[in-house]
Every structure is written in C-alpha cells, then in structure tokens.
Amino acid sequence: GRYLYVVVPENVEGIGGYISGKPYAATFQVEPYRQALTFLGNGALLSLSGDKKVGFLVRDVDHVEIEIGRVLPNQLQHIAPMMWDFSKPRVYPWLVDQVEERFLEVRDYTDKQPGKPTYESIDLGRYLQSKTSTNHGLFLLRIRSVIPAPKNAAEDNGDPEENRGNGIEDTRLILITDLGFIVKQAKDGSRDVFVQSIHSGVPVDGARIEVIGRNGQAVAAATTENGGRAKLPKFGPWKREKIPLMILAEKDADFSFMPFQTQGRNLDLSRFDTGGIENEKSAQQLSAYLFSDRGIYRPGETTHLGLIARTADWKSSLAGLPIEVEITDSRGAVVSRDALKLSATAFEEIAFTSQLAAPVGTYEATAFLVKSEKTREILGSTSFKVQEFEPDRMKIRLDLSDRAVEGWLTPDEVKPRAVVAHLFGEPATGRRVEAEMSLTAALPVFARYPEYRFQVGEQLTEPFHESLPETVTDDKGIATFTPDLGRFTGRAYRLSLLARAFEAEGGRNVAAQSSAIVSNAAYLIGVKPDGDLTFVKRGSARAAHWLAVNQQLAPVAADGLTLEWVQRKYVSVLTQQSNQTYKYVSRRKEILRDSRKVRIAAGGSNLPLPTEEPEQPAAAHRGAGRFCPEAAECGRHGVEHAELQRGGRGESIEIAGSRCRAADPAR
Asked: Is the whole model's pTM more than 0.85, yes or no?
C-alpha cells in the first residue's frame, strides 16, 4: 500500500531508440500481495489406516478460522442432493447447523513474512471418536479469513460473539474410510457393487449395501459375498420419499457412500480398449449379419449374399419370421427387394444379378424386419462394389541376377531383366517396360543364422530413388536394364526394383518387384553372444561366437583381421545453437583401448569379452568390440559388433559398435 516517487531524467533512450525530451515524475502505489487461503490437492477421500491430515495454504492472511463439522449419523440424506461436486457440496448454512457437530479454531499468522506462503494442516484423527465411541468419518471443513471477536465480548452479555468474515474462504468435504467401491449398471437395470479395502486392496465380504431414499430409509439392500460383490435389483418406479439418493456401503463402524447426482464419479474409459458392439437391452432384440461372397463384381454378374439372424440371447426360434432384403445401387435407387421367411436355422441366401448396363459404384444391401405394411425395422446391412474391370492378359517376372544367391549380390552381378509373357506362356514381344530403382540402408537378416547379427560395412546415409530408362521387350519377351551402381562403390545397401510392362495399346500394365542386398564384400561377419549382454557382472567369463559367411551363406575362414576394443563415452560439449546461444550437448567420444590380430576359423571362433577391467565409478562408458580386416582389405568385407554392459561396485560399461579401420579417417 505504500507509494513510490519515480523520476525519469531527460535524454533517456527508450525502446525503438526514442529519446525522452523532458524529465518525467510520477507516484505509484505498490499493490499488496494477493491473499491466498485454499485447501491443497484434489479429492475428498482419506484412508482410515493412513495419515488423517488435510493440508491448506495461507498467504497474507492474519487470522484463519478453521471450522470442522462432523456429520452426525443418519444425516447423509440431507446433504446428498446438494453434492453435485463430491469434494465441495453446496450445503446451506441453516442445513449445516442441523446435520453436523461443529468445532472451531482460530489460528494467528500475523507474524508471517508478507508474500511468503505458509503450509498448515488439520488433524482429523482426534475428531473421529464421538461420545458413543463410534467412528464418524465424514467431515465438512471450512477455512476463512476472519477478524477475531473481542475476548471481553462474551463477558459483557454472556454470549460469545462470532468472528467476522474478512474476504476469502474455502470448503472441502472429507470422507475417512477404508471401504472403496465401484457400481456397475447392467443392461437390465440391475447394479453390481464391488467393495474392497483401500488399505490392502482385498475384497470386503459381509459389507451391507443399501440404496437410501429421500427420507433416509433403505429402499433396496444387499450384502457382499465371495469376492466383495453384491447385486442390487433394478430400481422400481419409486416416487416421493423413496426416490433413490445414494448407495451406502457399511462394514462394522465404517461406511462409504456415493450420491447419484454427483458429477465426475464415472469411470474414465479413455485409457482402455472398450470398442465393439453395444449389447442390446432386451434378450429378444433381433439383429442380422449380412455378407457377400466376393465383395466386388462386374455388371451382369450374380452377387450371392448371406444373412444370419439371431436374437440377443441366441436362444429364441425365428422360424417363419418375415424378413425383407432391399438392395440399392450407387445412386440410391432401389434395384432389388426380396421378401422371405426365415428357416429354422435363420441362415439364408439372397441372389442378385445386376444388369449389363448397371451403374458402377458401391451397392448397399439392408435387411428389414417387417412389422406392418408401413413399418419396418433395420436389422443389419452390408455393402459390395460393382466395377468394370478386366483380368490381366500378361504376366511378368523380375530377376536381379543371372544366378540365384542366398546372401547378397555384388554390384557387377546386378543385371536386372524382366520376362514378360501372355497368360498362356507365349512371349509378349514389343511391350514397353518401365522400371524404378530404390536404394536404402540395409541390415542383413538371414534365416539360416537367426541368432547372428550381421552388418554390411559402410551404409547409405539417406535413401536414393531413380527412374531407369524405359525399354522394350525383345522377341523372347525379355527386357534388360543397366542401373548405374558405380556411384555407390564401397557402400552396402538394399536394392529394390519395380518393373511395369504395358500392353500394346492403352495404359493397362502388370508389375513385379524384387529386392536384394548389394555389397562388394567377399564375406560378411556375424556375431552371436553367449547370452543376454544387457548387463554383465564384472569379472564374469563371457564370450561371443564370430562367424564369417560367403555369398551363399556358407561358413568360411577369415584371415588378416584386427580386433579392436573401443571405449565410447559421452561428454558434454558447449555448442553454439542456431539462435546464437550456447548450451551443453552430449557428444560421443571413442577411445581405442586394445587392438590385436585375430583369425576366424571356417566354422566360427569363440572369443572372450573383456569384463575384468574396472571402470571409474562416476562415469558410464560405451565401448566397441570390432572385427576389422587389415587396411588393404578394408571396404571389401562386412564387419559386425557385440554389445555388453558391465557393472561392479556401481560401475557400468558397454561394448558396442563396428567399422573397418580404413573406412574411418579419424583413425
């Protein structure tokens, strides 16, 4: 509330470069901190076995009056109609005086620092026991800012003077219980109530479940049995004093309740897969399932439709029931209407033959239950298409190489050719053929070695797509392509080729696609660990089996290899960003820890993994076990890596990564 006198001299540069021409002087009042007095958190439930304290926040309030109202037994029917918000019911003051036993307390916060929030709590544990030693766990709490009444006012007239309200207040309903329950309403109107202990989560048997009416009397009741479940019958047409207000669950001296008018108590199903067809309310509700034999037909062809009719309980006999099936075309016009009577199995067939000049598009078949001449009820529907189409008159086969290879192809072996023929096998000569080539990064997976991991050296950094020059089939129906793969020498990739062969006239075509891994490596090296390497205890004996295979995936011996154990660690580097600011970014750093010559036998070799070396306890490192050929052979062979994480006394290390040494300029 104080005032500040502010003076701005002349020639002060402001926003936009403007200069003040003369001094400016003014006074400003400092606004006080906004007062705050509110309960903390959400909800209105406290466990009977847990902490029975309710927290609230106070800021810049001198005196707070805490009103604790313990709701008296058998008075819930008076506040249930007002509980639109369960935690903050709008109970009239005159009604509060009739349903609760009140306790008042005033707390002084005049010595608190201005603007600094103070966190306090109300302990309800000491208010649970009444004069009859019965637990009453329902409280109406109110906190408000007040001006305390003078202490000598009660001495003058004998009646205590009430504290005068001073602005802000907050209310909260608190239910202290160990009974949690869920109510599920069935299609027939009955309700299943499931009760369990909040403390242990165990279903509660022997709990009394009552439906309370307006007069506080039970209009329906049940008791939970095995599994904490009780079943309430469908509510009758109750009126006046018997209109249901809430469901009450009681066990010994504990109780819990749920008003029907409370908002926000429905179970949120957004996190659960609750799709499907909703059950019918009546067990005799009739429905039908329609389906077609193909789904697509040419004009003039016969469509065979199937119809299955059932009641909701699948028990009633439908023999002789009149059904009408109506079919509409793509324009919405009715093109067929068939009346039939269901057989004993209620499984019928309807045949529909379209005209040769029938419009194409989506047709709709709908089944109706005939109730009268003017009244029909929809039972089910399905759709099918009528389209003008012709079968393929050619076939095509696409080969990427002259010989079959189980593993991979070298760039020189890639010689794509498309073999085009008529349906009866005669070569389709003079047919235009187009092709598209796509190159993507590849990670080989071979069915013969499912437990091994292979890698094909240096890969493409980004996908590549290109259309090849079109060609024409020769007298044998063969069209060849010459993709330029020399631009990708030294890299491994997956080659995908799509070829289209067009008919002699028009744009109708047939297509074929084929793909293969392309690499100039003479062999690939794969690795299979002896178990899970997610975490490895330091000092344990672990190994990995390394295997070299040729293009036919036959195991071969590999000489002149170098095994490098490389430590990978991530360090924080101060890096300039695009907006000219700086921030620390994690960068990977590789350190060569060991290097030695190795040889892989024709059947593979088992090599131990280093697990003895301790790590710094405060750091987590990554390393790489690499097979690299000699520098003269790098780039002609594929290499692979093993990954492990090692720990001991809080340390951890990972072994990962692989590259040829000559392919890494940094080495």
From this structure: no
